[in-house]
Amino acid sequence: MLMIMACWAIGIGFNVVPHAVTHGGFFGPVRPFGECGIVARMPVFPTVQIGVGIFVPVLGAAVIYVVLFLFLAVKNARARRKQTAPLRKALAVANVAVNSQKRPAMRRRITQAQRRAILSRVLFVSALWHAICFLPVRVWVVAAPGAFFTNLPLQLWLRVLTLLGYSFNPVLFLALNHDYREGAMQLLTGRCKYRLPFEVSGSKVTAGIT
User: Fold this and answer.
1) Domain span including residue 72
2) Membrane-spanning residues where (predicted)?
3) Mean pLDDT, the chain, integer
4) What pLDDT shows up at residue 70?
5) pTM of the predicted model over 0.85
6) In this structure, is the dihedral angle defined by the CA atoms of residues 177, 180, 181 and 182, taken in order, positive or negative?
7) Cis geometry, peptide bond prior to residue 32 (ω within 30 degrees of 0)
8) Whole-angstrom Cα distance, residue 169 to residue 163?
9) Domain count within the chain
10) What tens digit of pLDDT does each residue of 136-192 get?
11) pLDDT at 208
12) For residues 115 and 72, what is the distance between their CA atoms, to the nearest angstrom?
């Protein structure tokens, strides 16, 4: 919720506030690639826009995903260490009637931890790819604007890098997430179903709703 509200606040701040406090804007080349658009009459606005609109979200997302990935990786390792030992011991015993009901719960908890770790890895790799594709343009514009705007081949290659940043997210998700691949295959083959678990007579039943 906080991330959604922050996106709204940044969008409103960049598109409304600069033009409202400076009696509108004018049409001109918009950084970094010089497309025609509305430019605010605040000299400091482009720098603030790049800093708050690009660097802060990318770095914030990277920090959040790194912390999430490390936290879930450690939690997954601890869960596997605690739960696989009793499971192996139970399997080695001939009479496992008492433990027969515990093993599915153990496996379920391990599977949930593994899924969280995989999801955090997908988010981390996606954020890293986003930073690789989108940060070089902004860093170059801030560090050496004169060299950037006079070097047309550099602008072309950085524009290609920006397009790759937009287009490769589905490829990353397909490569790193089995659930995403399965869902995409079901969607493409027309077998997509929404599964809703509910309770019937004390037993858990899964119903498929097309």
Assistant:
1) 2-153
2) 48-74, 118-137, 157-176
3) 67
4) 79
5) no
6) positive
7) yes
8) 11
9) 1
10) 877 777 777 777 777 888 878 888 888 888 888 788 878 887 777 888 788 788 776
11) 44
12) 10
Residue 106, token pair as written in the block: 């153990």
Judge whether 93 and 151 are in contact, CB under 8 Å: no
- For residue 207, being part of any structural domain is answered with no
pLDDT of residue 1: 61
Q: Answer whether 151's CB lies under 8 Å from 137's CB.
A: no
Q: Is residue 112 pLDDT above 60, yes or no? A: yes
Asked if the model's pLDDT at residue 132 lies above 80, the reply is: yes
In this prediction, residue 134 carries a pLDDT of 79
* Domain assignment of residue 208, yes or no: no
Question: Does residue 117 belong to any structural domain of this protein?
Answer: yes
Does residue 187 form part of some domain?
no
HEC string of the chain? Answer: CHHHHHHHHHHHHHHCHHHHHCCCEEEEEECCCCEEEEEECCCCHHHHHHHHHHHHHHHHHHHHHHHHHHHHHHHHHHHHHHHHHHHHHHHHCCCCCCHHHHHHHHHHHHHHHHHHHHHHHHHHHHHHHHHHHHHHHHHHHHHCHHHHHHCHHHHHHHHHHHHHHHHCHHHHHHHHCHHHHHHHHHHHHCCCCEEEEEEECCEEEEEEEC
**Tokens linked to 175:** 């490569």
